[in-house]
From TrEMBL:
SUPFAM superfamilies: PEBP-like (SSF49777). It comes from the Eukaryota. Pfam families: PBP. PANTHER family: PHOSPHATIDYLETHANOLAMINE-BINDING PROTEIN, PHOSPHATIDYLETHANOLAMINE-BINDING PROTEIN 4. This is PEBP-like protein.
Length: 291
């Protein structure tokens, strides 16, 4: 191995050690911020293992062998743009529609051309509750016709944006913001990405008889109905409905009038010890400098 490779590897290892240390920090609210703000790539192998650790594979999706790293980007409660990495814990407000979807490693997916279109869904695997998910899966969003952009992600320069051209925007299921009831456990929400069979370039999923019912959505039946291969990428986040008056794991006290979160249920003093935001930014800067 070249000496410079050693140095790079060393830098990468210390960067990840730093990340580990910081991630293990038990100060409330820190983990989510860092997972969002590092804006560092996650390998497909890590996506795979995080889905397995979360139990989503095999409880919800029988198997996931992602070809691409699939990311969503959201606005954090403190107003920062953040990257959703698999397993991020969000507040209800942060779980609003991502302002950007992006992918890395697209050349590893089979049967992709520049004209390939994609479909994306969001589902709640733990509806209405984690203990009794009798509406699994609850579909919160489904749209086809996503297209690869030549523009890179605003958060991750190695990722290409996916966008939905206005002329082709025809979501089969309009986005319904996650709003799990308080004290119904930790809900896992999954975004997944599939390549779109060409028959849906000119018609929506009703041409194969897909139902608009959003509850009790069976993924295996649906894939067969639409003629889909396995997901080429997927990511997930959770909302802890036991935290923050049911509004999820908030990284900050919401003191701004009109700020997200949907109301004054935030317990007084929650997350009062959250360290300055600058800490996470400094860490992100350190990581960038090491790259
Ligand atoms: C390429 O995709 C396959 C699944 O199609 C996956 O098993 C493999 O890990 C991917 N390789 C990389 C480098 O992501
Ligand atoms: C590749 O794509 C074409 C057209 O989109 C489709 O007919 C074919 O079945 C696909 N092949 C595989 C292996 O997915
Ligand atoms: C989903 O199906 C199960 C079992 O068939 C049923 O008990 C449940 O009420 C259904 N849930 C909804 C929301 O339709
Ligand atoms: C894709 O866009 C076309 C219009 O260009 C539209 O007719 C079709 O329904 C769309 N398909 C999906 C799955 O959204």
């Amino acid at each position: 191995m070249l000496p410079s490779m050693h140095r790079l590897l060393g830098a990468a290892l210390s960067a990840s050690a730093l990340l580990q240390t910081a991630t293990a920090d038990d100060r409330p609210g820190l983990n989510r911020r860092q997972s969002g703000l590092n804006a560092a790539s996650v390998s497909t192998a890590d996506f795979k293992s995080r889905f397995e650790e979360s139990g989503i594979v095999p409880e919800v999706i029988a198997a996931l062998d992602p070809a691409v790293s699939f990311y969503a980007a959201y606005q954090s409660d403190s107003g920062q743009d953040a990257l959703l990495v698999p397993g991020s814990s969000l507040t209800v407000a942060e779980a609003n529609f991502p302002f950007e979807f992006s992918v890395e490693n697209l050349n590893n997916a089979t049967n992709i051309t520049s004209t390939t279109r994609y479909l994306i869904y969001l589902l709640d695997a733990d509806a209405p509750s984690r203990d009794d998910p009798n509406a699994r899966n609850l579909r919160h969003y489904l749209a086809g016709n996503y297209t690869i952009s030549s523009t890179t992600s605003s958060l991750l320069p190695t990722a290409q944006r996916l966008f939905l051209p206005t002329a082709n925007a025809n979501p089969f299921t309009q986005f319904q913001p996650p709003a799990p009831a308080p004290n119904t456990g930790v809900h896992r929400f999954v975004y997944a990405l599939y390549t779109q069979p060409p028959n849906f370039n000119t018609a929506n999923f009703d041409i194969v008889g897909m139902s608009t019912e959003t509850s009790n959505w069976s993924l295996p039946d649906w894939r067969m109905q639409l003629g889909l291969g396995p997901a080429i990428g997927a990511t997930f986040f959770s909302i802890d409905t036991g935290a923050n008056g049911g509004q999820g794991t908030s990284g900050n006290v919401d003191t701004q009038a009109g700020g997200g979160g949907g109301g004054g249920a935030t317990p007084a003093g929650a997350d009062a010890n959250v360290p300055p935001y600058a800490y996470a930014l400094a860490l992100a800067g350190t990581l960038l400098a090491l790259m």
